[in-house]
Amino acid sequence: MKEKNQVMTANRLGDGAVVYLAEDDDWVLSLDAAEIAESEEEAIRLEERAGLAMKQQKVVGPYLFAVSVTGEYVAPISQREIIRAAGPTVGTDLPETTPLR
Fold first, then answer.
1. 46, 99 contact by CB (below 8 A)
2. Residue 17: other Cβ atoms inside 10 A
3. In the beta sheet, which residues pair with residue 9?
4. Residue 60, Cα to own-chain centre: how many angstroms?
5. Side-chain half-sphere of 58: how many Cα atoms within 13 Å?
6. What letter does residue 79 receive in the DSSP assignment?
7. Under 8 Å between Cβ of 9 and 35
8. Is the per-residue pLDDT at 7 higher than 90?
9. Phi then psi dihedrals of residue 16, to 5 deg
10. What's the pTM?
């Protein structure tokens, strides 16, 4: 069974950041600012807009994922999206460039 509420995510082409499609066709870092598709028709429109952004080389790998909505709080349902929304899980204390030996 498909979840009713879905959000479009992708990676920003310039820096690889996890981003979410917002109502103004901007790609935002905050899941709370993402546009939420509440029907299959709205999800199809998100897919079309994400496809255009991919053709414009703004993002790569866009896809929809299920979210739960409580008031204004949006939360991913799957473990994968919980991790992606939280940010990097390793290497956050490493220098920007680590020399190879």
1. no
2. 13
3. 20, 63
4. 11
5. 17
6. H
7. no
8. yes
9. 80, 5
10. 0.83
**Cα–Cα distance measured from residue 58 to residue 80, given in angstroms and rounded to the nearest whole number:** 23
Three-class DSSP category at 67: strand
Q: One-letter amino acid identity for 2?
A: K
DSSP state string for 5-58 = -EEEEEEETTT--EEEE-TTS-EES-GGGS--B-SHHHHHHHHHHHHHHHHTTS
If you ran DSSP here, which 8-state letter would residue 71 be given? T
Beta bridge partners of 27: 21
pLDDT tens digits for range 55-93: 999 999 999 999 999 988 899 999 999 889 887 766 666
Any bridge partners for residue 67, and if so which?
A: 76
